[in-house]
Known about the structure:
Helices cover 50% and strands 16% of the residues. With 353 residues, the chain is an alpha/beta fold. It has two domains: 5-176, Glucose-6-phosphate isomerase like protein, domain 1 (Rossmann fold, 3-Layer(aba) Sandwich); 183-329, Rossmann fold, CATH 3.40.50.10490. A five-stranded parallel sheet has the order 2-1-3-4-5, with helices on both faces.
Amino acid sequence: xxxELIPMEIQAIPVAIQATVRETRAAAREAAAAMxxxxxxxxxxxxxxxxxxSSMAAAYTAxxxxxxxxxxxxxxxxxxxxxxxxxxxxxxxxxxxxASGEFRDVLTVFERLEGKCLRVGIxxxxxxxxxxxxxxxxxxxxxPSRVPVMTKTYASTLTAEHLLLLExxxxxxxxxxxxxxxxxxVEVALIQADQKVPAWVEMLKTFGxxxxxxxxxxxxxxxxxxxxxxxxxxxHAEGNETWETASGAATLIGADAFCVAMDAGGAGQAATRSxxxxxxxxxxxxxxxxxxxxxxGEHLPVGLPGCESFAxxxxxxxxxxxxxxxARARGVNPNQPGWRDRYYSQGMTHILG
Length: 353
C-alpha cells in the first residue's frame, strides 16, 4: 500500500457524493415511503464513531424540515441503544448505520427488533450482514475503500442519510440540488487545503493537543475532525459543541494546544467566533475551517451549501487532509495503524490496512 492512498480517497470525496446522490436516491425514496406509511413518532439513527457523527449531522436536516407534529429524529450511540434499548413499537423506526455492515451492536439491535418496528439499514458494502437483518436498505456509493481510516465513506454515508430524510419529509428539488452542490464545494475546499495545509503542518507538528469545536451542523464535523486526527496522527484530539468546549476543554486549552473552529455559518456562527477569540486570548493557536477568518488565526476558506444542514459534508474533507499530512510530518504512517486489532474486536471489519 502506497503512502498516498488516503489523500487519493480524500480527493475522491466529490465523486462519492455525486455517485450516492445519483445511485441511492431511488432506494431512499422507497424506504421513505415505507417510513411514512408507519406515521412514525420517533426515528432513531444508531451508529458508532463516524457512523454516529454522520447521523448527528443528518439529524439537522430533520430539524429543518419537520413540522411541530412531525416525528422526533434522534442520533444515538449503537452500543448504548443496544444495552439500554427504549421500548419501541410499530410507530417507531430504527435506522442502523454501519459502513462495513458488520458492526455488532447495530446487527444485534436489528435482530432483536425484528417484527417490532421498521428497520432501515445504511451501509457501504452490498453483501454485508446488515442486508439480511433490515427491512429497507440504502447502499452509499463512491467505490470500495482501500484504506484503514474512513474518509470518502463518511461523505457517501452522510449523503445517503440526508437523501433518506429529504425523501421522508418530501423536500423540494432545491434541497437535492443543494446536496449535490456540496460535491463542487468540497472540490474547491480541497484545492484551498492543498495550498494552506503544508504551512499549517510545519506550525503544528510539535503540538501535543488539539481541540475542535463547532455549533449546529458543525458540531459533528468537529467530532469527525478530531476522530481523524486521533486515528491518523495519533494525537490527542477532542471534538465538542462550541459552548461545551468553553465549559470543559477550556480548562486545558493553552499555548501547547491548537484549536480548530469548524464554522457552518448560520445561527451558531456568533458563538463559534466568540470562542475562537477566547482561545486566542488563552494562548492557543487557532485554525478556522469555514467561510470567514476568526480573530487573528489561520483560515482555510470553505464555501457553504445553500442548505446549512449539509455543511458537515464540506467541512470534514479539509480536516481529514490536515490530519493525514500532520501524521506524516510526525513520522506516523496512517496506512498501517497499530490500532487495527482494537477495531476488529468491535466488529469494525471495514478497517483494512
